[in-house]
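Progress note, project year one: complex with zinc ion.
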Amino acid sequence: MPVNGGHSQHGLAADWLRASRSLCVLTGAGVSAECGLATFRGPDGLWKGNDPTRLATPAAFHRDPGAVWEFYNWRREQLRKAQPNPGHFALAALQELLPEVNLLTQNVDRLHQQAGSRNVAELHGNIREVRCTSCAYERNGGADHLGPEPRCPECGDWLRPCVVWFGEQLPREAVALADQWVARCDVFLSVGTSNVVWPASAFAGLAQNRGARVIEVNLEPTPLTQVADLTLLGKAGELLPVLARAVENPPPRG
Ligand code: BJW
Ligand code: ZN
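Model obtained:
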């Protein structure tokens, strides 16, 4: 819909981004959907008929660690075949174009870092690392070939992925970065998240209360759409490259 004297929504979003001194981006599973990785909610978010959000809980792991591991091993397998998509690369490109871009991600897939993004805080951990449920054992990387029911080499108890399940605290360092980045940003860009999981769902509102403009990119409206200053509906892998190009090449002004 044209706004601001024929200026398109994309053009307006690009103007805000170009003028930004500090951009804070929040991403969710929708950013990786075009890599063939499943999202959590909605009709495509099912795994063997299970709601993945019900598997991402300490209670599910306690009840049936093997089933939860089957879910994570399947996701790790999907991830092995996946590459960053144009949306990931466009966010990395924005980092070269703007004075400051900080990226908060709810994704555990490391695809932002793989696409070249710096200043990434992983709010929900990552799926490539594992730790023991009993002792201090951790393995960073090299954990690609876990068995179906991975056990700790030190104590024999269950290993678990280094991700954040419901009711668990987010990593302290990621939360500290989020607090700083949300407080200092003048534009907040939410991409491919349903914006229902706290505390990530609160960040856009906090930024807006401190004067930041909130831009949302999503396939469909979310609870954030009501409060966002501007929502672009469409695929992240298509809209983000359009935005990055428009930031790089401002239209001539008459
Ligand atoms: C596209 C697209 C394309 C598709 N282009 N767009 C009651 C009220 C409020 C809060 C709570 C409450 N009860 C409990 C809470 C707290 C709870 C919470 O928020 N629950 C709500 C769900 C009710 N939060 C927590 O428990 C958090 N911890 C916490 O609060 O600690 C403090 C505390 C501890 C103890 C006691 C009290 C306080 C932890 C949350 C952890 C979330 N973990 C998961 C799993 C991570 C591991 C893994 O990956 O397996 O994180 S759940 C899952 O949801 C995952 C995601 O990161 C997260 C968010 O999902 P996301 O990314 O938004 O994905 P979707 O699928 O929901 O949405 C995709 C979107 O993309 C859609 O909108 C599509 O339209 C769009 N899309 N394709 C653009 N191509
Ligand atoms: Zn152990």
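The first strand starts at residue 23 and ends at 27.
Residues 65-80 form the longest helix (16 residues).
No further modelling is planned for this target in the current period.
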